[in-house]
Fold Dispersed gene family protein 1 (DGF-1), putative.
Amino acid sequence: MPGTELVDRSSCSCSCKDGWHGASCFPLEVPDTFLPPVAERAVDGDTNCVVNQTLMNLALNMWKTHHCYVGVTFSGVGAELTFFLNSMPLHLPINITLTGCTFREGAAVQFFGGVEAAESAGVLIRVSQTVMRSSVVVFVFALPQHCDIAVTEVDAVQSSILFWPDTVNKRLSVVMLDSVELTASSLLVSNVRAYASRYRGFGLYSIGTLTLVGGSSLYVRYCSFGGYKHLFHVNVLSVRDHSVFALLNNTMSSGTSLLYQCREFSVLEHSVLRM
């Protein structure tokens, strides 16, 4: 080797010139021991469901591919079922299912994304056959790509805003969207029956900018709201790149409008707004 200064053939060893290292005299430092790569974090693939329990506080393991709740009652403001989607193993398909559950007295189910839409192998979210009493379903920030989300068959009665985390945007709402971005994703809100005991609530409430891109869709259909001022209050709406925003076959027994556009909206690049 070019870095070898002296070879001792009797012991099969060599000494290196200054600046050369290791048994073979390489021009860089070589560790004495081999360090194997750090093992990947094991993913919890348990597909069992939490069934028929009452939960008042929760600690979720985000490094799971399946989260399933059937007939569970979430009670009180401490029972926030919060999913940080970008902390999940998005290289695998994710399945989050809540069926026949009850949220009451300020309990909430929340789905947090990130600053931008993360790559994913697909995220399936189902909230169905749900009873809500002064509770809310919340989506926040840019959700991962390829989300398939449905909130269906909800029976909601709202008389208080215990669930609301801040003091600026307090409203009685069934579904709340905070600066949500959907990328190559779909969000369906269907067959919701909701009543608010205090007027001026918004059935669905979007603060910040609601963005649909990459062929995404947001459908609200076959919903019935009573006691709300607006069925869907949207601050800023941006629909681009073959995406669809649609309100179809919804009714209000009282109130002002099905869709209230607070500020600006744009529908561009072969996208569609339907009502």
In short: The chain has a mean pLDDT of 85. The CA atoms of residues 29 and 246 lie 63 Å apart. Residues 53-273 form one domain.
